[in-house]
Write a structure and sequence with these properties.
Blueprint: E1 6-10, H1 14-25, E2 30-34, H2 37-46, E3 51-54, H3 63-76, E4 85-89, H4 94-102, E5 107-110, H5 115-124
Parallel strand pairs: 1-2, 1-3, 3-4, 4-5
């Protein structure tokens, strides 16, 4: 397990991108940004990430569809390992968590971004020690 992670942040809001990136870099994580789900799928196909932080409501392709495509690509590509996907979303209705997990996401976290909770999730998913 690593202490410094390679993270794909999938977020369409520039302010949220900046705040989240700043928080993650304080922990020495490397952060790539995708502005929508389609960009996320393309970046994922080109590079291995330790974890993907996925917004749900985005233009072009939402986070649910992007996760479905990522999971499909993993199944079709034996050399590609399972990459944890954590939903980070303002959608906090009871069934939103179920929808996220049903698409193949590994965990769900409500906005606003909470670095302490995210670190707990990283530990629960065995991404960091």
């Amino acid at each position: 397990m690593k202490e410094s992670l390679s993270i794909l942040l999938v977020e369409d809001n520039i302010l949220n991108q900046r705040i989240t990136t700043f928080s993650l870099k304080k922990f020495n994580h490397e952060v790539d940004i995708a502005n929508n789900g389609l960009e996320a799928v393309n970046k994922y196909r080109e590079k291995d990430y330790d974890v993907i932080l996925m917004d749900i409501m985005m233009p072009v392709m939402d986070g649910l569809e992007a996760t479905l495509q990522i999971r499909k690509f993993e199944k079709e590509t034996p050399s590609k390992n399972h990459t944890p996907v954590i939903a980070i979303t303002a959608n906090t209705l009871d069934n939103d968590r179920d929808k996220c997990l049903a698409t193949g996401m590994d965990e769900y976290m409500a906005k606003p971004f909470d670095m302490n909770r995210l670190n707990e999730i990283f530990k629960e998913l065995n991404i960091i020690a």
